[in-house]
Design goal:
Elements lengths: L13 E2 L6 E6 L10 H9 L3 E6 L12 H18 L4 E4 L11 H14 L3 E5 L13 H16 L8 H4 L10 E5 L6 E4 L4 H9 L2 H7 L6 H13 L7 E8 L1
Length: 249
C-alpha cells in the first residue's frame, strides 16, 4: 500500500545523526520502505552499518487482481528482493492481517521482542499521523504500526513491561537512542542521500507485481523518487534528502 507522493516544502531542518552501528526499520507493508527511506538504508549499509527490516504484514490485500493467498507470498519475496538491493539481509514478518492492523499491546509486544532480539541503536518507522504532508489521509495500518513502533522502542528497555519476553530469552534493550519517523508531515530532521538514489530506485522496481497491480496509478520509480528526494533536499542545501520526525528516548 503506497504513500501519497511528495514532501511539502520544508524549512531548514536538523541533520539526522549517523554515529551508530545498528538500525531496525519497522513498517506495515512491503514497499513502505521503498518510497524514499530505502535510499538512506543504502547509504547506511554502504557505510558498514547493519540494518534489519520488520514488517507487520505481507501486504496480501494490496493487489486487487490477486487473492491474499496469491499476493502474500509474492509480495514477501518482492520485499526480500528489494531489501537485498540496498544491503539488507534480515527481513522478518509478524503475520498481522494486511489492512486491519490494530494498535494495541500485542503489536507493541511483538515489535518490542524484535527490538530486544536485534538490539538496534536507531529505529526507523513510518508516519503515524492521520495525514501526510499536503493533507493526504494516511492509511490505517501505517498509523497503527508507526505509533506502536515509537512505544515499543521504549517498552523494549523495561523488564517489567512484557516480562514474558524474559522467558523467551529476550533481555531488555534500552539502547535505542531515537526513533525516526519517515513521511511525517511534522519533519524535524533530514538525511542527505545524494548518490544513493539508484539503489533505492532499483529497490522500488523490485516490487514489480505490486506496481503492475496499481495500473495507471503506479509511479515511475526513477521519476518519483528523484522528484521527491530533490524536493526534500533543496531547502536543506543538498541534492537529495529524506525527511524524518525524530523522537528521542
Amino acid at each position: 500500500m503506497t504513500s501519497p507522493p511528495g514532501p511539502p516544502v520544508q524549512p531548514k531542518l536538523l541533520e539526522l545523526p549517523e554515529d551508530f552501528e545498528r538500525a531496525m526499520c519497522v513498517v506495515a507493508h512491503p514497499d513502505d520502505m521503498e518510497y524514499g527511506a530505502a535510499a538512506l538504508v543504502s547509504k547506511w549499509t554502504t557505510q558498514g552499518k547493519t540494518v534489519s527490516y520488520l514488517l507487520a504484514t505481507r501486504g496480501e490485500a494490496g493487489i486487487d487482481g490477486m487473492t491474499p493467498g496469491e499476493a502474500g507470498p509474492l509480495r514477501e519475496q518482492e520485499e526480500r528482493d528489494g531489501a537485498a538491493v540496498v544491503g539488507v539481509d534480515v527481513v522478518d514478518f509478524l503475520d498481522y492481517r494486511d489492512g486491519i492492523v490494530e494498535y494495541g499491546l500485542p503489536l507493541r509486544r511483538d515489535i518490542a521482542a524484535a527490538i530486544r532480539r536485534h538490539r538496534p541503536e536507531v529505529v526507523i518507522g513510518m508516519n503515524h499521523h492521520e495525514r501526510f504532508g499536503g493533507g493526504f489521509t494516511n492509511q490505517a495500518d501505517h498509523r497503527a504500526v508507526g505509533l506502536a513502533t515509537i512505544d515499543a522502542s521504549k517498552d523494549a528497555g523495561n523488564r517489567w513491561i512484557f516480562p514474558e519476553l524474559l522467558d523467551e530469552g529476550l533481555q531488555p534493550w534500552d539502547g535505542v537512542r531515537f526513533v525516526a519517523i519517515a513521511a511525517s508531515p511534522q519533519a524535524t530532521h533530514f538525511a542527505d542521500v545524494t548518490g544513493h538514489l539508484a539503489p533505492a530506485i532499483a529497490s522500488l522496481r523490485a516490487h514489480a507485481a505490486y506496481l503492475e497491480g496499481l495500473g495507471a496509478a503506479a509511479p515511475d520509480p526513477a521519476e518519483f523518487l528523484t522528484w521527491m528526494a530533490a524536493g526534500a533536499g533543496e531547502p536543506q542545501g543538498v541534492e537529495a534528502a529524506v525527511l524524518f520526525e525524530v523522537f528521542g528516548l
